[in-house]
Amino acid sequence: MQSEEFCVYIMASISGTLYIGSTIDIVGRVSMHKANTMPGFSSKYRCHKLVYYEKYAELSEARAREYQIKSWRREKKERLIAGQNPTWCDLARFWDRYS
Could you tell me the pTM of the whole model? Predict the structure, then answer.
């Protein structure tokens, strides 16, 4: 991942609870989620599995997309995830091996 690459991402819990966020450091942010050090909603519901992400060159684009996705009904979010990740596997499952 190159610097200045902003990401919108979706984390999921084992029970299927979804957390949507944006970051400039997707690897670091996902590591924080997995370590349960993200205070608030993500930590409370144990959203530890990266199921979706998109890259953007501009922070404003990433934030706008984050808020757009957050406004959607659950069914639309599920279709978005399934389009990139039909089995909802953890897209970051091997990241710690390469960092």
Answer: 0.90
